Amino acid sequence: MAARFLDVRKRRKDSLISNIFSIFVGKIIRITEMIDKEPQYKTMPEHYLSCFNDDCPLADGCLHRLAARSGRQKDDVVSAVNPVRCCGESCRYYKPNKVVTMAYGMKDSFHEVKADNISPLRNTLINHFGRGSYYSRRNGLRPITPDEQQYISSVFRQFGYEVKFDRMVEETEWL
Q: What does the domain layout of the chain look like in residue ranges?
């Protein structure tokens, strides 16, 4: 009888430990999900446009409002959306808080390109981005957004090549 009582007690203890572990793991997962929804402020551009309109229906998911709330802008004077001009559901400054795959650099892509195609291919990209912006993207100093990746890929395909970006990173799309 005593052995049976100890066995029941051990099962209850194991069940309790299992439940506590499940709750603990569940909270970690929820905390991780909350962290994943926070913008990656370390990649926020300097002088990012802020929005101080708490009444905007889009405020909770807008990067401009989240940037203003974060307190991470160190400038004494900031650029801000005029709250009077906020259009509610159709705000033209609304920037959704989403994580995308950004590319950095494309130097290796030019190793495959034939010499007579390098200059026209590069000039097409420079004409689109501008000289400084092109080189900062090519050298991996500035992220290449998914839309820009599509454009660059289409230019490479026009010349019969595939683009290979130097590295891909999941991060908040600020611009």
A: 1-37, 41-90, 99-172
